[in-house]
Structure formats: C-alpha cells, structure tokens
Amino acid sequence: MARAAPSQTLQPTALVHEAWLRLVGAEQQTWQNRAHFFGAAAEAMRRIRIERARRKRGNDYVRSPLRARGIWQVAQFAQMVHSARAP
Q1: Handedness of CA 11, 17, 21, 23 (dihedral sign)
Q2: What is the C-alpha separation between 10 and 48, in angstroms, rounded?
Q3: Is residue 7 a part of any domain in this protein?
Q4: 18, 48 in Cβ contact below 8 A?
Q5: For residue 41, which of 54, 59, 29 has the smallest C-alpha distance?
Q6: Fewer C-beta neighbours within 10 Å, C or N terminus of the chain?
C-alpha cells in the first residue's frame, strides 16, 4: 500500500476492517494456527484490493487472447524445448 497512488481511497485501517468482516462474517471459521489466520487475512485483503481496482477501472477493460499478444509463441517455444529435453 506504500506504493499506491495518492488517489487511492482505501486506507489501511479500512482494509483491515473489511477483511475482518469477510473472515468472520460468512461462516464459523476455525484456524489451525496463527500462520493459517494471517494467510487467510492476507488473501482476503488481496481480494478486496483487486475487487476495488476492477470496479475503479470500469467496464472498458477488454481481455485479449494470448495469441494476440505474442505470448503464445513463447509458450510454444518453451513446450518445444521441454519436449526436446525429455528422455
């Protein structure tokens, strides 16, 4: 969040509160340990930020197929190299 744009409206405290509401709001959750809880909290915060970014971007976003971006050739080349190395 330190690298976020100044126009970012989601404050760290609000993000933590929203993540907490999502973690405890839906179901009764049991955490295996502290790391499990912090992992779930991090995932919730990540999803909240992604959702807000998607809403902010609007509906003008259009996905382009991998082939159109040239990534297809890279994946094809990597597959060819991998199959050449296989015994």
Answers
A1: positive
A2: 10
A3: no
A4: yes
A5: 29
A6: C
25 part of a folded domain: yes
pLDDT digits (tens, 9 = 90+) for 46-63: 999 988 888 877 666 666
Q: Tell the residue number behind the tokens 């990540």, with chain if given.
A: 46
Domain membership of residue 80 (yes or no) is yes
* Three-class HEC string of the chain: CCCCCCCCCCCHHHHHHHHHHHHHHCCCCCCCCHHHHHHHHHHHHHHHHHHHHHHHHCCCCCCCCHHHHCHHHHHHHHHHHHHHHCC
31 belongs to a structural domain = yes
Using 50 as the pLDDT threshold, list the residues of the chain that sit under it.
Answer: none
Q: Which two tokens stand for residue 28?
A: 């009764």
Structural domain containing residue 66: 12-85
